[in-house]
Amino acid sequence: MHLPSSTSHHPVGDVSATMPPVCDFTVFGGTGDLALRKLLPALYHRDLEGHLPEDTRIIGVSRSEIDDEGYRAEVRAALERFVEPALLEPEAVERLLGRLHHLCLDADTAEGWHLLHGLLKDRPREDDAVRVFYLAVAPRLFGPTCERLAEIGVVNERARVVMEKPIGHDLGSAREVNDAVGSVFAEHQVFRIDHYLGKESVQNLLVTRFANTFLEPLWNSQWVDHVQITVSETVGVGSRGGYYDHAGALRDMVQNHLLQLLCLVAMEPPTYVGRENVRDEKLKVLQALKPLTPADVDRDTVRGQYVAGLVEGERAASYADDLGADRSDTETFVALKAEVQNWRWAGVPFYLRTGKRMDRRVSEIVVVFKEPPHAMFPGAEGGASANRLHICVQPDEGMRLHLTAKEPGPGGIRLRPVSLDLSYATTFDQRSPEAYERLLMDVVRGNPTLFMRRDEVEAAWSWVAPILDRWEESPEPPRRYPAGTPGPFAAAALLERDGRSWQETDQ
């Protein structure tokens, strides 16, 4: 079955869409790590705040042979583990547990699917219910699961499907996944989730750019020297080794998270923030990225892999040891230089890097402005440095604007770098919701603004494809870097040859 395509006027994409009164939230992979660690705690927090529709049911679907009570016990244990104790209110916990059901189903077989049909159809106000189907399962099951949903007749105009990354392994497989899901759900019903886009600091980037006038005249190649985007982790691959060794850092992080952050920095102002406008502008950025030739890939990309070292004072094993393998050529680190070829950004390099087992855990965007064109304070101690806007996505969400100021004191002028700080934790006297909390509620409302559209996903894969191809044919293995360091030396050289350096949080 295929539902008609949506246009930008479809009410399902309206940023002002209201919460429906009735919702059935079905999680495929309902006993998996993502569901228990992120999704169920996120739904708990929204229920605690009274943001879930009053008539909401949460249906966990998995291959585990447990009944409703067994599932509620698992979720209770997950809440106790992943929710702050101070926020565990017994009444709210019992309310969420009372919403839960569990069904034992396998997407590879036709058995048992009638139970899901019966559960979704057997409810008061069934015609008013929004149905959310969250695919927290392996990507190979995205298509078959959607086909089963169509076969049992539970996909209607008020149904939505959520897909976790990765959407495919390359451009071809991404198209296959999108075709399979798109044969059942219209594009306006498909929510491709990137949890980075749900973080408060990322959303605040849009507000900072478009609700304040002082930055917009400077947000271009005339005043911006370059942009850096960093997502570094201190952890290794952990239990994700099997998946990660087939993906690598470029597929796992750059193709989605980092390119999405780049889009939000570089996009043109939309007419307003809502419906398809933001996604239209992000697509234009992806389409404007300078295509990379093999020579560009050799010069402007660095891939690395961690070896044994010290992380936060403790010994950390190598990537191969974490895998339990003798050898692997999968990259755990990527640094690259990109350029957006349009009027606003022509000539401004965007430096992206991400890696595991690095020296710090941080996700940040740094916009580095050009240095003052003339030294106005001859003989002054110190010097005027380039202004920088640091946008910290995690762990301490906030912004810092780095300026040059005069140090107080008589006699002469001493220049000193200072910063204007915005910390969400100290500025706003309220808990900052986790990314999934915002995104799950946007799915229920039908607001697609913070989700990736099909053409965005495929444009991103098209841009990284030459990198993947070149690395595949290159005999040179990833450069090794000790765990607990900023990555391979070649990543620093990538900027140094342009007369620049990576900006660290404490600089």
Automatic annotation (TrEMBL):
Which positions fall inside the Glucose-6-phosphate dehydrogenase NAD-binding domain?
A: 27-204
Main EC class of this protein?
oxidoreductase
Provenance organism: Nocardioides marinus
Organism lineage reads as: Bacteria, Bacillati, Actinomycetota, Actinomycetes, Propionibacteriales
Please tell me whether the keyword NADP is annotated for this protein: yes
Q: What is this protein called?
A: Glucose-6-phosphate 1-dehydrogenase
Q: Does the keyword Transmembrane helix apply?
A: no
Q: Which intervals hold domain Glucose-6-phosphate dehydrogenase C-terminal?
A: 206-503
Function as written in the Swiss-Prot or TrEMBL entry? Catalyzes the oxidation of glucose 6-phosphate to 6-phosphogluconolactone.
What reaction does this catalyse? D-glucose 6-phosphate + NADP(+) = 6-phospho-D-glucono-1,5-lactone + NADPH + H(+)
Chain sites annotated for binding NADP(+): 63, 165
- The entry's keywords: Carbohydrate metabolism, Glucose metabolism, NADP, Oxidoreductase
Active-site residues, Swiss-Prot/TrEMBL: 257
Give the gene symbol.
zwf
